[in-house]
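From the pipeline queue, job 12 of 40. The input is one protein chain; the requested action is below.

Action: predict structure.
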Amino acid sequence: MTNLSLAMTFALVLLALYLSYKDKIGLEKDIMIGSVRAVLQLTVIGFILTYVFDLNNIFVTTLILGLMVYNAAVVSAKRGRGIYHIQRIAFFALLFGLVITLGALLAFGAVEYQPSQVIPISGMVVGNSMIAASLVFNNLRENFLRRREEIEIKLCLGATSREAATSIIRQTIRSAMLPSIDSMKTLGIVQLPGMMTGLILAGLPPTDAIKYQIMVAFMLVGAVSVSVFIAAYWGSKSFFTEFEQLRQP
């Protein structure tokens, strides 16, 4: 792809701007800011990754993974404002999802701990887990506020905080995991995912690209599951005091 071809694709952004302006949606500013940020951020990260890949240092690679998790946790935690210790919950939910998943891939020999392999893979893991965790925090907050009276009745009848919140936790986990499960169901039929498409465009035979994409699909559903369960169960506990009482909103 030439630089001119890339620049011409901005016409698609102009189309989005026109549609927003025509129907008075009011998203013109957000679209422009998003477009500019995308170009700047990707350009900067391109130079950084080039340096990191050439450096091939285990400590620098690990530091970058940690920064990815931290930034994702900050974004995800915004969906759970008002939840006690939300930053800590978000960080460890995403961290454990990444560590368990990446650890399994390393143990199975599917990848090596090299920046060119673990950074792109970790980006996919953390990104998907972040979205799922955001859904968890948002749903937890809304359900605990909306069903507060129901929970208090259960507590008065002798239920523990865990028992009183079980239905909310299950509903939250289900809602957060369904997008990843549905995405996996449609692989190869409705969508050709980014990693597979990129490998094919790079010249890798489709049959080999499929193997990597299957690995990614399994990896993502595993990481999302871990992060969602930790976020849901730990997050639900923060709505109760140490005396099994529901906290005031």
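Job complete. The chain has two domains: 1-55, 57-237.
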